[in-house]
TrEMBL record:
Any single GO BP term: UMP salvage
Activity regulation description: Allosterically activated by GTP.
Residues binding uracil, per UniProt: I194, G199, D200, A201
Annotated organism of origin: Bacillus weihaiensis
Protein name per UniProt: Uracil phosphoribosyltransferase
CDD domains, per database record: PRTases_typeI
Binding site for 5-phospho-alpha-D-ribose 1-diphosphate: R79, R104, D131, P132, M133, L134, A135, T136, G137, G138, S139, D200
Length: 209
């Protein structure tokens, strides 16, 4: 079964409070999501393999470590996932970015796929699927399905806020996928929104409401 990690780092928790705040405007919201995505990327990359190299310091030659060159792919679920991409790329600039376009039908709450574009070497990469919200779990499950159908094998899912219902749905559908969360909230409301949550992530990022 996939593991669930809730990041309790004080900086992440502090920034998340202002992300939740209904008074936070679009500009600041976008900046905070970007910052939290960077901090989460720092935590999520803990297990990246290293290799030893020789480096000439001004004093002598030292044995030191560099990343072993694992190929990574970041997959934002459009559109709100886009808000997390730049923050991650600041730490992992060599990662490739693919896109999965999904929207949640407001009546059925089922995800509807409208766009998929992945790096060509899907089978060789490890992927991090990103979306600020994991609510019913439908979008995350569908995005991961989409990647697996095209040959992806090693996938992590990272979000800012998750509902327990959504976490269970992803664990059930994709037991091989670890889930990384900044905050695990209480529940979903009757409209499939996370409570207390942050509202509609896409609208808050792009000022569309
Ligand atoms: C939001 C959010 C997730 C999805 C989560 O996107 O960004 O993708 O809902 O809900 P779920 O877990 O119940 O599937 P939305 O469908 O509103 O699309 P948008 O990003 O284009 O606004
Ligand atoms: N999508 C959002 O943007 N917010 C929620 O609370 C649930 C789904």
């Amino acid at each position: 079964m996939g593991k669930v990690y809730v990041f309790d780092h004080p900086l992440i928790q502090h920034k998340l409070t202002y992300i939740r705040d209904a008074k936070t405007g679009t500009k600041e919201f976008r900046e905070l999501v970007d910052e939290v995505a960077s901090l989460m990327a720092f935590e999520i990359t803990r297990d990246l393999p290293l290799m030893e190299v020789d480096v000439d310091t001004p004093v002598t030659t030292a044995k030191s470590k560099v990343l072993a060159g694992k190929k990574l792919g970041i997959i934002p679920i459009l559109r709100a996932g886009l808000g997390m991409v730049d923050g991650i790329l600041k730490l992992i600039p060599a990662a490739k970015v693919g896109h999965v376009g999904l929207y949640r039908d407001p009546k059925t709450l089922q995800p509807v796929e409208y766009y998929v574009k992945l790096p060509s070497d899907v089978e060789e990469r490890d992927f991090i699927v990103v979306d600020p919200m994991l609510a019913t779990g439908g979008s995350a499950v569908e995005a991961i399905n989409s990647l697996k159908k095209r040959g992806a094998k090693n996938i992590k899912f990272m979000c800012l806020i998750a509902a327990p219902e959504g976490v269970d749905v992803v664990k059930e559908a994709h037991p091989d996928v670890d889930i990384f969360i900044a905050a695990l909230d209480e529940k979903l409301n009757d409209h499939g929104y996370i409570v207390p949550g942050l509202g509609d992530a896409g609208d808050r990022l792009y000022g569309t409401k």
